[in-house]
Each structure stands twice: as C-alpha cells, then as structure tokens.
Amino acid sequence: MAGHSHWANIQRSKGIADAKRGKVFSKLSRYIMIAAKAGGGDPDANLKLRYAIDKARAVSMPKENIERAVKKGTGELEGVSFDEITYEGYGAGGAAILVDIATDNRNRTNGEIKKIFEKGGGKIGTPGTVAWLFERKGIILIDAGKTTEEQLMEVALEAGAEDIQKEGDNFVITCDPGSYSAVQDAISKAKIEVASTELTQVAKSPLEADVETQQKVAKLMELLDDHDDVQNVYTNLNITAEAAVG
Fold first, then answer.
1. pTM of the entire predicted model
2. Are 67 and 29 in contact (CB under 8 A)?
3. What gap in Å lies between CA 93 and CA 122, rounded to an integer?
4. Chain centre distance of CA 123
5. What is the arithmetic mean of pLDDT over 232-238?
6. Is 40 exposed, middle or buried (0-12, 13-18, 19+ CB in 10 A)?
C-alpha cells in the first residue's frame, strides 16, 4: 500500500498543475461523459458518474463544465463518443503497468501508447498479461491530525471498510468498490475531513526495486499520464518518496 500512496500523492500534485492548463478538465470531461452514457445522468443512481463528478470537483472543475459533460454523455448535447480500453505492459525491472484509456480513435491511441512504452524503456503486452496482479479497491486518505484511529475504525469498519493503516501522516482506508460510497458517506456524516478518495487498482503483492528502477518506472508512468487519452496509470512497483523526488 505504501507504494500506492506515494504514487497517488505524485498524481494529485501533478493533477493540480495540469488542471491549471485544462488537461485534467478535458480528461475528467471524458470520464463523466462515459459514465453518463453508460448509466444515465443522475449521480445518485449512477455510482460511476458520482465518482467522476467527485473527482472533477476535487480539482475545482467548474460546475458548468461538469453539467455540459453530463449532458453530452446522456445525448442532451452533441458530443464525441469515447471507448474505454485498458492497456497492460511492463516497465523497468519487470514492473507491471495498467493504463486506463478513453479514446475516440482506437488505432491512433494504440500506436501512440506503444511508442510511449518503448520510449520509457517498457513493453506493451496483450490483454491479461498483468491485470491479474491487481485488484480494484476504494482508497480513502485522511490526515491523521483530523481524527483518531479509534474513531476512524468505529466509523469506517462499521460502514464496510476492509482495512485501516497508518502511513506517514495519513490514515489509509481500503474498501471493496461495493462499499466505497457507504464508507464515504459514513465518514462524511461523522464530520471527518477527507484528504482524497479514489477507486483504483491496488497491487496484490507490491514489487520492490532499487531507487533507479523506481525512477525509470515513475518516468514512464508520467509519460503515459501526459497523453490526452490516458485516464489512469497504475503499477505494482512500490515507488517511494525518495524515488519520486528524484
């Protein structure tokens, strides 16, 4: 879990910078459109849409942008149709990498993602190559100074959380995707401030490597994340704060 949290922190910091130039807004608009198209425009009845909107609000995406994306997804406004694809591959040291894509041109994206893997010293694989090394989880980060472990355990575990761990200055709550919304709601009702929440892919058995290898994998992930069609990038490699700074 430690590697996940450090990479998540890198992504959050990067996300704020990207949002200032509109890149994250564009990516989140696609995510909202896909969610609305698949399950309708009501976030109370469409958990995927609710999550997408929560992510958009977390980076201060304007309300009108969110509403426009929802309407494009439901067909109320004309919009581009996006396909969701997951690419699987390897980075330095055999690190497994998953890449979530939202694209309107599969052939173009396929070629471009392959080139990025090659440029970053990695190799793209076939479906099923590394996906089995991950499991879908809800992760909620809470500043340890905002609550006590006892209070958090009482609230989160009661709502269905699987685990609570202290990592650095944060408590990390892990839950099954099916319990994710219930745990979030319980924490909100308890008036416990949340640092971040996300549905993500967590490595079943995190891989360890030296700092140089970690830096190479982090660089590849950043190159992938910079692509307009990429929604999320995950690795099973434990990327430490030391490697992230490097």
1. 0.83
2. no
3. 9
4. 22
5. 93
6. middle
